[in-house]
């Protein structure tokens, strides 16, 4: 049978949730991290550009494209910290993969859930290279939509099983703790940032605020910890005091984007940072010693979304968890697009 050229596989939110459950959330996070790691190790084969951001007073809408020469991918994503007060998500996303040879899309998928999964997998993967050996305790500051995904990725990839939670809204911490019941964590909710970082090997900051916030100050950060800074990902939106950055070994995804969006926007444009992909290939050193503070200045880069789209596409045939979307016009004679439109016209009622 000839392939239906008009049809593109579409993964809805419902199908994505079924897919995550069919695979198992922790296995999904581990396998996705494997795809991300494989793509980071072939970093030089990708087209790279800082994401294209459209800023407004309330938030940002971004397009994140990349290609490896065979497949092209992009994600549409927003960031609107005030949205949750109106019953909407801070971050929503969808994405596309396309065949470079024909330019035809081969996948359209929800990426709100997938972004949370890929962000968590990337964070845990970075920590696998950077966190102190044997790390078991993680503090999470900001207990919103991304938080449980972060916790589960660190459990699945590193064996983190003690969580310390803090949020300015205590109900967010209680919900996070409740959602993680049965996943094998020992959870402590803390009222203050000073308290939440006590005894933590890893500190994840994943707050949402459209401003330069100071979630962590220098005096709260002891030697040897790994900071996974996720929430500072836009110009004018950071979470860490600059003094912490000056004491840390800083690891980033793609410097031209991170210098605009990450914690390092607070530092001079030539401040030395290490690219994570080079740590993965062995070209650069990761953690230098057990007293070094390591900082993954995460902003989220297009290649992580590409890996996530690639991973989802690989699951489709096996699981059948997609719909066929009539997305592409496909006239019998390719140049007769208008003829196809004419033939679709319903005869006028007599
Ligand atoms: N780096 C990446 O790849 C990446 C990917 C996705 C999201 N993000 C960012 O992560 C952040 C969190 O996203 P989300 O979807 O979980 O948002 P969310 O709005 O669902 O949750 C954010 C939480 O942070 C809390 N918070 C705000 N200010 C705080 C403070 N000063 N101290 C403690 N808690 C505070 C809020 O009460 C809320 O519970 C956003 O800034 C988002 O842009 C980054």
TrEMBL record:
It comes from the Bacteria. Coiled coil: none annotated. InterPro entries: NAD(P)-bd_dom_sf, ODC_Mu_crystall, ODC_N. It holds the Pfam family OCD_Mu_crystall. Belongs to the ornithine cyclodeaminase/mu-crystallin family. This is Ornithine cyclodeaminase.
């Amino acid at each position: 049978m000839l392939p239906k050229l008009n049809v593109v596989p579409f993964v809805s939110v419902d199908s994505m949730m079924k897919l995550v459950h069919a695979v198992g959330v922790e296995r999904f996070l581990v396998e996705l991290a494997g795809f991300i790691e494989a793509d980071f190790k072939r970093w030089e084969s990708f087209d790279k550009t800082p994401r294209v951001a459209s800023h407004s007073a309330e938030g940002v809408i971004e397009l994140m494209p990349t290609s490896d020469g065979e497949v092209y991918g992009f994600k549409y994503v927003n960031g609107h910290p005030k949205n949750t007060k109106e019953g909407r998500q801070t971050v929503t996303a969808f994405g596309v993969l396309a065949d470079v040879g024909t330019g035809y899309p081969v996948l359209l998928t929800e990426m709100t859930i997938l972004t949370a999964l890929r962000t968590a997998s990337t964070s845990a993967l970075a920590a696998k290279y950077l966190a102190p050996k044997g790390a078991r305790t993680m503090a999470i500051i900001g207990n919103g939509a991304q938080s449980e995904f972060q916790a589960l990725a660190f459990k699945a990839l590193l064996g983190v099983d003690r969580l310390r939670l803090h949020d300015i809204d205590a109900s967010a911490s209680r919900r996070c703790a409740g959602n993680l019941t049965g996943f094998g964590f020992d959870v402590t909710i803390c009222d203050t940032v000073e308290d939440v970082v006590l005894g933590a090997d890893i500190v994840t900051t994943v707050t949402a605020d459209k401003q330069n916030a100071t979630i962590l100050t220098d005096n709260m950060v002891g030697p040897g910890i790994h900071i996974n800074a996720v929430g500072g990902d836009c110009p004018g939106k950071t979470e860490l005091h600059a003094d912490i950055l000056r004491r840390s070994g800083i690891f980033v995804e793609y410097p031209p984007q991170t210098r605009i969006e990450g914690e390092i926007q607070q530092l001079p444009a030539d401040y030395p940072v290490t690219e994570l992909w080079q740590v993965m290939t062995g070209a650069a050193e990761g953690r230098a010693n057990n007293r070094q503070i390591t900082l993954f200045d995460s902003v989220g880069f297009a290649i992580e979304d590409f890996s996530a789209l690639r991973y989802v596409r690989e699951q489709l045939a096996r699981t059948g968890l997609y719909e066929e979307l009539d997305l592409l016009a496909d006239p019998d004679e390719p140049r007769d697009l208008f003829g196809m439109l004419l033939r679709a016209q319903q005869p006028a009622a007599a």
